[in-house]
Amino acid sequence: MNTAVLEVRDLNLSIDSSNGPHQLLDGVSFSINAGETTGLVGESGCGKSMTALAILGVLPATGMTIRSAGIMLNGEDLTALNHAQRRRVLGQDISMVFQQPATALDPVFTLGQQIAATVHRHGISGRKACRQTMLESLELVGFSQPEKIAAAYPHELSGGMRQLSMIAMATVCKPAVLIADEPTTALDVSTQLMILQQLKRLQTEYKTAILLISHDLNIIRQCCHTVLVMYCGRLLESTDPESLFSHPRHPYSAGLLGCIPKLSATRPPPINAIAGQVPALTDLPPGCHFAPRCDRAIAQCRHTAPEPESDNGRTVACFRPMP
Ligand SMILES: Nc1ncnc2c1ncn2[C@@H]1O[C@H](COP(=O)(O)OP(=O)(O)OP(=O)(O)O)[C@@H](O)[C@H]1O
Ligand code: SF4
Ligand SMILES: [Mg+2]
Questions:
Q1: Top mutation candidate among 236, 253, 298, 315 for ligand 2, by most atoms within 8 Å of CB
Q2: How is 10-70 classified by DSSP, letter by letter?
Q3: Mean pLDDT in each 10-residue stretch from start to end of the chain (323 residues)?
Q4: How many Å lie between the centroid of ligand 3 and the Cα of residue 182?
């Protein structure tokens, strides 16, 4: 039987403003099994990175408050840990490849120094042992000359090499859960493929549970066991990729899939963009936040938020799901 390594229960995140708190995440719940990949998709600004950061308890701004019914990592509630306990767990049991490797890496230290510091912080002592583990982690993600990469500063590496180095740093302690936030964005297709292959290899070897955040729906389709569709901080649909791609039930999921460009031999095919825009955080519509953009909306949608309902392994939050 598959066991959930990470279980996120009713995660809420709000940020204070002069007009009162604004909700960034609203009742986000999901779990990931050992050795499986869960994809998180949605338009820009819908809360994907915030979900990742809130799970880790690392928030980018003051005035943000997390509430949840628990963020369980192998049965241990991360929200109940004190600062020292949390430092022990982050990087060792759960780690993250950040969306912007160029800014996530420290420009004044070599890659080797940065990875070795992570190794040292999580219990390996002695320069020689730390260096050996660090070099092995670089080799494991595919660098044939790890010493050369270890001696380089972040600015001396290409985007793809920086991203692979980030993956080496995030996986050096063989975490049970890896969160990869847009690990392939802005990279050429062959580098994308290499990064995805390395993530898959690490997963197979260590049974890592991966939360893969990506705008690339084709990558999500190929790599994931489960897909979560997010909009304005709420999860609207969750199911396996084949069910989602062949038969989306939530109108927003259908809209996202309609945006995928299709190749045509004869003329430029139309891209069916979703009408309207993601609303500002400060101006979220009441009820279903997608209602102003939804051509299936009914009066109820404009004042009441639909509760997620599960059936046959699929969860949908919508009053009028697609037939
Ligand atoms: N440092 C911050 N302070 C205040 N609000 C923030 C901050 N960072 C993000 N937000 C807000 O949180 C919301 C969710 O942002 P988030 O970065 O999670 O989006 P995302 O889905 O990851 O988008 P993208 O696909 O562009 O990376 C957005 O409305 C954004 O404006
Ligand atoms: S709840 Fe209503 S507005 Fe929201 S997606 Fe479903 S039909 Fe559209
Ligand atoms: Mg993001």
A1: 298
A2: EEEEEE--TT--EEEEEEEEEEEETT-EEEEE-STTSSHHHHHHHHHT--SSTTEEEE-S-
A3: 89 92 96 97 96 92 92 95 89 88 86 91 82 92 92 92 89 92 84 86 91 94 96 98 97 91 65 85 94 97 97 96 95
A4: 7
